[in-house]
C-alpha cells in the first residue's frame, strides 16, 4: 500500500510519450502507402483512429477531473490553467479534421488524400508537442501541489476504463511501456490490477510486438 502524500505525476509524462511518438511516426507511414493499397490504408486508418480516440479521452479526463480543481485551488496559476484549456480546444479542432479525413483515405488509399491527412497529423503533432511540453514543465508541479493522491488516481482510472476492447487495452499498455525506462515499466505495471500484470507478459508483450511490426511495416 502506498504511503505517498503527493501524487506521482510522472506517469503522465510516460503516457504522453505514446501520443508524441505516434503522431510523429504516422505522417510518414501514411505517405508511404501505395496508391490504391486499401488494405494497408485501412490498417493505418484504424490505428490512427484509436490513437485520436485515446487522446480525446486523455484530454476529457483532464477537462473534467483536473482543470476544475486547479481553477478552484491554484489561484496563482489561473492564466496557466486557462491556457491549457485553450490548447485543448485548438487540439480538438485539429483532431476533428483528422477524424473527418481518416475514413475517406482508409477506403480510397488516394495519394492526394494521404498528403492531406499526413499534413493534418503533422499540424496536430506540432500543437501537441507545445501543449504537452508546457503541461509537463509547468502544470504537473501545480497538480502535485494541489491534488490529492486519490484525486490524481481517478485520472488514471478514467484512462484505463476508456478502452473497452481488452485486446486494444493490452496494445495501449504496450505503447506506454515501449519508450519507458525499466524503472518506469516496473512502476507502471505495479499500479495495474492483478489481471493486467498477469496478462502483459503472457499475451500482451508478444501481441504488441506483432502489432508494431504490422503498423510500422517492419
Number of domains: 2
Q: What's the CATH architecture name of the largest domain?
A: Up-down Bundle
Count of helical stretches: 9
**Tertiary shape:** globular
Residue windows where pLDDT falls under 50 for at least 5 positions = none
Average of the residue pLDDT scores:
94
Q: How many strands, which pairing sense, and closed or not: the largest β-sheet?
A: none
Notes on the structure:
The protein folds into two domains: 10-149, nmb1532 protein domain like (Four Helix Bundle (Hemerythrin (Met), subunit A)); 163-218. The protein contains nine helices and no strands. The protein has helices at 10-31, 38-65, 67-73, 78-108, 111-146, 149-161, 166-178, 182-190, 194-216. The chain is globular. The mean pLDDT is 94.
Q: What tags apply to this protein structure?
A:
single chain; 218 residues; mainly alpha; Four Helix Bundle (Hemerythrin (Met), subunit A); 2 domains; 0% strand; globular
Summarize the structure.
This protein is mostly helical and 218 residues long.
Layout of helices and strands:
Layout: H1 10-31, H2 38-65, H3 67-73, H4 78-108, H5 111-146, H6 149-161, H7 166-178, H8 182-190, H9 194-216
Helix pairs in contact: 1-2, 1-5, 1-7, 2-4, 2-6, 4-5, 7-9
